[in-house]
């Protein structure tokens, strides 16, 4: 079975007066395995008693909490190791001001071993799909181009925020459209930074 993924826009970066748009990949989840589902799967595939698996998970969870609470880093087989990070309740500039009640748990970290990542990567079969949670509203560039040209017949220029409102897309999609229109010679970019506007090409 493949891992489904989709590509999403990163925030635009400006370099030498030009805005560039890069993409990142994100997993489209196949669903969620609950503890009950997970135990039933392991019990069935590895022929282990269901009740013993439940007991083992409860015991491991309890001991993990106990050891972390005592300040230990806890290794967990080939998966990796667990550790804690702390935070201070308020900004402190003098070490003498810090008291135990003002220091608290910030997070629990799992650092996965390289061997686990390598073995997981070897099992993965990736397939790109369109995420069902993404909106496709307003992504027809032909329709958006027509609305833009009609707008520029009545106005001397348009900025990205106005374009978003005009065609009903988000900032990332707007930037992709506008860059495409620039390459096609439909519009030209004028200005830099927050003062950028687009005029007819």
Automatic annotation (TrEMBL):
It comes from Bacteroides acidifaciens. Residues 1-128 form the HU domain. Keywords: DNA-binding. InterPro entries: HU-HIG, IHF-like_DNA-bd_dom_sf, WH-like_DNA-bd_sf, WH_DNA-bd_sf. The keyword tRNA-binding does not apply. This is DNA-binding protein. Residues 1-21 are annotated as: Disordered. It holds the Pfam family HU-HIG.
């Amino acid at each position: 079975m493949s891992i489904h993924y989709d590509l999403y826009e990163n925030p635009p970066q400006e370099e030498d007066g030009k805005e560039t748009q890069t993409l990142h990949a994100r997993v489209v989840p196949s669903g969620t395995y609950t503890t009950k589902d997970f135990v039933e799967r392991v019990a069935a595939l590895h022929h282990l008693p269901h009740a013993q698996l439940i007991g083992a998970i409860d015991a491991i969870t309890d001991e993990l909490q106990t050891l972390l609470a005592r300040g230990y880093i806890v290794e967990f087989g080939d998966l990796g190791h667990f550790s804690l990070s702390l935070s201070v309740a308020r900004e402190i500039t003098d070490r003498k001001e810090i008291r135990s009640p003002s220091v608290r748990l910030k997070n629990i970290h799992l650092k996965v071993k390289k061997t686990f990542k390598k073995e997981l990567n070897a099992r993965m079969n990736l397939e790109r799909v369109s995420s069902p949670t993404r909106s496709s509203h307003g992504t027809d560039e032909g329709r958006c181009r027509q609305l833009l040209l009609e707008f520029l017949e009545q106005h001397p220029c348009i900025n990205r925020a106005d374009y978003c409102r005009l065609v009903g897309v988000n900032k990332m999609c707007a930037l992709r459209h506008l860059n495409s229109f620039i390459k096609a010679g439909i519009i030209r970019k004028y200005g830099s930074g927050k003062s950028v506007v687009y005029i007819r090409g």
